[in-house]
């Protein structure tokens, strides 16, 4: 039994993919994720008047970092939620246990007494967090 091969015809049946809908979809996804990212950060931190610093540097790595804000009255906040020192201690301890290299960003108002910042640093140290970043506004220079 012989198999006969038929010669290829000159007509092409090419299954093409139109790029226009794919490009539209990429732009829609881009807009979606940009909006979702902005919305997820919308209420994530307390609005404070941070101190100015000409030597301020922008952090490159925000992974494994928790943000604690302290207002001018010494009240600590996780996100927009006011927390007492005991709650802060528990939250930082839990964060330290769940994160391999825990880091802390302290955002404090210009008028925040240093005693409140120092108390937060002590709580963080007791929880096992020793990598601190103090948030300031960059002015002039760099």
From TrEMBL:
Q: Name one GO molecular function term.
A: transmembrane transporter activity
Keyword S-adenosyl-L-methionine part of the UniProt annotation: no
Species this protein is from:
Pelagicoccus enzymogenes
Q: Where in the cell is it found?
A: Cell membrane
Q: Which InterPro entries match?
A: ExbD (IPR003400)
Lineage, broadest ranks: Bacteria, Pseudomonadati, Verrucomicrobiota, Opitutia, Puniceicoccales
**In what way does this protein cross or attach to the membrane?**
Single-pass membrane protein; Single-pass type II membrane protein
* Gene Ontology terms: biological process: protein transport
Cellular component terms per the entry's GO annotation: plasma membrane
The record, for Gene3D superfamilies, names: 3.30.420.270
Task: Write out the similarity annotation.
Answer: Belongs to the ExbD/TolR family.
Which terms are listed as keywords in the entry? Cell membrane, Membrane, Protein transport, Transmembrane, Transmembrane helix, Transport
The protein here is known as: Biopolymer transporter ExbD
């Amino acid at each position: 039994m012989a198999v006969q091969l038929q010669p290829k015809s000159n007509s092409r049946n090419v299954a093409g993919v139109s790029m226009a809908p794919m490009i539209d979809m990429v732009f829609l996804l881009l807009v979606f994720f940009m909006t979702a990212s902005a919305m997820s950060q919308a209420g994530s931190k307390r609005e404070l008047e941070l101190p100015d610093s000409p030597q301020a540097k922008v952090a490159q790595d925000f992974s494994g970092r928790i943000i604690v804000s302290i207002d001018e009255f010494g009240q600590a906040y996780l996100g927009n939620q006011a927390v007492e020192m005991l709650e802060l201690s528990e939250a930082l301890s839990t964060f330290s246990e769940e994160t391999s290299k825990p880091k802390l960003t302290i955002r404090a108002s210009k008028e925040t007494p240093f005693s409140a910042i120092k108390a937060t640093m002590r709580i963080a140290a007791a929880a096992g967090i020793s990598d601190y970043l103090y948030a300031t506004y960059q002015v002039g220079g760099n």
